[in-house]
Each structure stands twice: as structure tokens, then as C-alpha cells.
Amino acid sequence: MEILWWLAPPAVVTVLAMLWVNWLGREGRGEVDRDVAVERLARALHKDHPAMTRPGPASTRPRDRSTGIAVRPSGSRDDRRSA
Questions:
Q1: How far is CA 23 from CA 10, 15, 17, 29, 44, in A?
Q2: pLDDT value at residue 2
Q3: How confident is the model at residue 32, as a pLDDT?
Q4: Least C-beta-crowded within 10 Å: which of 3, 19, 24, 43?
Q5: How far apart are the first and last CA of the chain?
Q6: What's the rounded Cα separation, in Å, for the pair 83 and 80?
């Protein structure tokens, strides 16, 4: 049990830092009026987003996710020798 006493000071400092940051965070946060927040949300939802309205051909096949492994194209050996 004596061997773990060296952990006590860092644990106390960590707990005190967590409490201090928690207290500091409460002071810095101002409350937003609910009506103002709803108005901001409505404006954000009605805004046109470029990703949603981008013109272009729609892909019928979903793009394969990269796994980081290189895969050679399939084909017979004769096709590869002639190329």
C-alpha cells in the first residue's frame, strides 16, 4: 500500500484542476434566450447549403470505401502479358 502513495499528489492536483475548470466554465457561459435560439435555428435550417443543392450527375453506384489495401484489377494473365 505504501508504494501507491506517490499517486496521491497527482490525483489531488487532477481533481482540483477538474473542479476549477468546471467552476470557470460555468462563469463563462451566458444563457441564451430560448426565443433567440429558436430563431437562429430556424435561419440555419432554411439556409441553402451548397452540398445539398450541388448540380451534377447522381451516382447510381455508391462509392467504395477505401480500406488502404491495394487491389489489382481482375483479368486473365494473357491480358496482362500483352499489355
A1: 20, 12, 10, 10, 31
A2: 76
A3: 76
A4: 3
A5: 73
A6: 5
Amino acid identity, residue 2?
E
CA R_g for the chain: 29
List phi, psi (to 5°) of 39.
-65, -45
Report d(CA 41, CA 32) in Å as an integer: 12
Listed in sequence order, the DSSP H helices in 1-83 are 8-28, 34-46, 77-82
pLDDT in tens, 32-69: 788 988 999 999 998 887 666 556 666 667 777 777 78
- pTM of the shown model: 0.34
Residue for cell digits 463563462? 28
The per-residue pLDDT of the chain, averaged, comes to 78
Q: Letter for the amino acid at 10? A: P
Place of cell 502479358: 81
